[in-house]
Write a structure and sequence with these properties.
Length: 111
């Protein structure tokens, strides 16, 4: 369960995304994703302890990029992914899998 990305819901009804740092049995030590400014986010260095019952959702991943909500920038921070951008394809940094062969493909069908 450690390193999992989860949604946390606090007693006052507010929710946030967090990374589980340590499973303490009935409680979890977490690092919350916080707004850092300039449209960037990062996980807090200050850890919180919350009851296990405060988890309101699981993303089934340890990588925030895999949620489809954020992408990691080169400086280690995260930027939100615009869900209305239908042409967005996450870049996981695997340059060996580039399918761009450099050829030009015509979108006009030939008769």
């Amino acid at each position: 369960m450690e390193r999992q990305i989860v949604d946390i819901e606090y007693d006052d009804g507010t929710k946030c995304i967090a990374r589980i740092i340590k499973d303490l049995g009935t409680e979890l030590q977490i690092s919350t994703l916080e707004y850092h400014g300039y449209e960037t986010w990062k996980f807090s260095e200050e850890l919180e302890t919350v009851p296990r019952e405060s988890i309101s959702g699981f993303y089934d991943t340890t990588c925030l990029d895999d949620t489809g909500l954020f992408e990691q920038l080169k400086n280690g921070m995260y930027a939100t992914v615009d869900p209305s951008d239908t042409e967005y394809e996450p870049d996981f940094g695997d340059s060996d899998s580039d399918s761009d062969s450099g050829s030009i493909v015509s979108l006009v069908s030939e008769f």
